[in-house]
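Two records follow; treat each independently.
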Amino acid sequence: MAEIDTGSSSFLRRSYELTGPRDAAKLYDEWAATYDSDIVETMGYVGPAVVATRLAELVPAGATVLDAGCGTGLVGAELTRRGDYVIDGVDMSPAMLDKARDTGAYRRLDVADLTARLAVDDDTYDAVTCVGTLTEGHVGPEALAELVRVTVPGGLVIATILDPIWEPKGYHAAVDALAAAGKAELREAEQRPYRVQQDVGCRLVVIAAC
């Protein structure tokens, strides 16, 4: 596992040691009740706000957005503060989806495994967000192709990828492979804050579907 500060959170430490989708669903079902206070208030988790701000700068209001790995709905809530978007969410954890439903930000919410093909047609969404999911022990770089698949040509995938794993774990290489295949174009991969109270940063990755 890459050296990533998890502070004193046993949930966060366990999240970087997941062994597959079932393990992920079990952990996040357990964590759902305290997730927002643990990660936002205690750890200074700003990833959702960073992505929502950039999406609002690049994607006009009224666009359809898939929030992939939506968790408790932090991204959806941030997006609704910035514009009138039509947002769908998917996540492995039913308990997290229940929390997301309480935000009122989503048109629909479904259980889905981001390590497999999504039950979504090609070219469905104007934009896709993926925050906190393309990370150690969660969803690997192969999922980027699936996120691009469900995005309309010219639409954007906007994601966070922890800085320590962007290169070593093959995420950058996966984006380059999509570009070489004519399926996507890397627009941005800027370093941004992620969990500010632990000084953990991420790459804010913006990929245009082709």
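The next record belongs to a different protein.
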Amino acid sequence: MTDQGFSLFEITLQQRAAAVEALLGELLSDRSRTGEISRPPRLMAAMRHGVLNGGKRLRPFLVMESAALFGADNLAALRVAAALECIHSYSLVHDDLPAMDDDDLRRGQPTVHRKFDEAAAILAGDSLLTYAFELISDEATELAPSARLALITQLARAAGIGGMTGGQALDLEAETVKPDEEGIIRLQAMKTGALIRFACEAGAIIGNAGEKDRERLAEYGSAIGLAFQLADDLLDVTADASRMGKATGKDAAAGKATLVSLHGIDWTKRQLAGLIAQAEELLSSYGASAALLKDAARFIAERRS
């Protein structure tokens, strides 16, 4: 712990978040880039509201720390981290729409469709999604073309029909047909876990790691991805809206099946402890170099907001 009471993990998380936010602020300015005709100011304002509104920036942290594990170039990792945050933010902008989760607050601020309108929110999300792939493919992301291609392919899979958007489709179906335990795990692995898994594997790709390392980091990402969703479901039951910065209790009100609703709070806490242990074991061969990634697993499972 530091003199201010913050752990090295918390300080590093804040530093990574600040670096990502600074880059996103620059990338999402109103100034047109080479090859662009113009940047509509209202669209850019909606995009910035969807991205630059706080948040822990956990997924970018995982990209950058996983890349650091293999001695990767920090700027390339930062740009990939920013791209991933664009994807994550687009998903939140669209999830908040009336046709999806119909939320008015996100991180304590009005959601994009509330501050602007639904059309602006849709276009802002679309623009963030496409911009993410431009960021990775751009030569300014100084990686070998094969690495950039691998990142684009894996991110598209994590964000698309077999990952996040497919998981959201299953989540909407679950409002009318409750899934069993296997179905809930599949849904959560897609909707929440896929981008977290990508974040961890991306670091290994950026660091030019071998196939075994890529697989190990991807498995670590899967473990903490499930832990993230279990913790989120716990918070939906136990936390209040002021702490979360968004509405809580919505899953229970909608009758949505979660592992918490199936097995209870105590079971869920035991599962979280097991997932932390699994994540730490997957990183054991990296020794002290993986200390912050181990801390991240505990942070995800024990978070309060």
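Discussion point: The chain has a mean pLDDT of 93. How would you locate this feature using only the token line?
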